[in-house]
Design goal:
This protein has helices at about 1-15, 50-60, 75-80, 85-100, 155, 160-185, 195-200, 200-220, 270-280, 285-290, and strands spanning about 30-40, 60-70, 105, 125, 125-130, 135, 140-145, 225-230, 235-240, 245, 255-260, 265-270. It is of the alpha/beta class.
Length: about 300
């Protein structure tokens, strides 16, 4: 389902060349130029996707290379019921527009969009689909890029249990959507209830720590300087005895990405926090321009 949806979307939108000649919207921020951007776990096709913030982020960047590191479209959820609002279509369109305007776009499917792995080696609308990639930074370091589900024992050895866990996580994300809807009514900023709970459950914290160690060890065995992955919805940059583990996070809880600057430096971008910072510095007249499209008027989007 995810692979077919992706292919249909790419083929249909790529066949509309008039779309690619439209000028990008002018914003007071301008474009953020990076050598490389990594995003993952957007989970398009679910109500939990922070589509407005993601769409705003993609409109605000101009990278040389964009890696989509898995779970871009949530095929597991789409099998249980169709959910595909216009904004999700807009995000796919934006990715294609970046590809058409010179950004190299590389898509590494994950477990939620595993059907897209049937298309490895092909291109759709200029988007390369690969099983994994080796990225070389501006300062010469080599990083393995993969989604990371192959290191998750639950997904690998107990697929049915992963689906069961996904249902529970989905319920938590639905609570997160309702929770933030109430917060907005009271003029409060975005805050992820699901992330708060996950990072305070002892077993979840232990799993994340062990996962990071296992992935870093695999990178060492591959002879690279580090690894970039997603999957566990926990943005992080950690050094494991000279091997750099980097996770770009997600767009259902934290709204984060990894970016490489032109000197090879890599950092985590928290987009909700970035927007909050811009809003705090902006004049009242400029707030409407700084706010992601479709977001209700409210104080700064600031995570707890």
């Amino acid at each position: 389902m995810a692979g077919q949806t992706l292919a249909r979307s790419f083929e249909e939108m790529a066949s509309r060349p008039s779309d690619w000649h439209e000028d990008d919207p002018v914003t007071p921020r301008g474009k953020l130029k990076y050598r490389t951007v990594w995003i993952s776990d957007t989970h398009l096709g679910t109500a939990g996707c922070n589509a407005e913030l993601l769409h705003d982020f993609l409109h605000s960047i101009k990278p040389e290379t964009l890696y989509l590191v898995g779970d871009i479209i949530d095929g597991w959820r789409l099998k249980r019921g169709w959910y595909w609002p216009q904004r999700h279509n807009d995000i796919v369109r934006r990715v294609l527009k970046l590809a058409n305007k010179g950004t190299r776009v590389v898509y590494v499917p994950g477990n939620h969009d595993e059907a897209a792995r049937d298309y490895v080696g092909l291109q759709f609308g200029g988007v390369e689909i690969v099983a994994e990639a080796i990225h070389t930074t501006a300062d010469g370091r080599r990083f393995l890029v993969l989604h990371g589900d192959e290191f998750d024992g639950v997904v690998l050895y107990a697929h049915w249990l992963a689906f069961l866990g996904d249902m529970g996580y989905s319920a938590l994300l639905r609570m997160n959507v309702g929770f933030n809807a109430v917060r907005r009514r009271f003029g409060l900023p975005y805050w992820s209830l699901s992330a708060y709970i996950k990072h305070r459950v002892k077993n979840a914290v232990a799993f994340i720590s062990h996962y990071e160690e296992v992935v870093a060890h695999a990178a060492r065995e591959r002879g690279v300087d580090g690894v970039v992955c997603g999957h566990i919805h926990s943005a992080e940059i950690r050094d494991f005895d000279g091997i750099l583990y980097m996770n770009d996070g997600d767009w259902v809880e934290s709204c984060t990405a990894l970016v490489e600057h032109f000197d090879g430096r890599i950092e985590i971008i928290d987009w909700a926090k970035h927007i909050a910072s811009l809003q705090r510095r902006a004049s009242p007249a400029a707030l409407a321009d700084l706010k992601p499209a479709g977001t209700p008027a409210a104080p700064a989007l600031e995570p707890a």
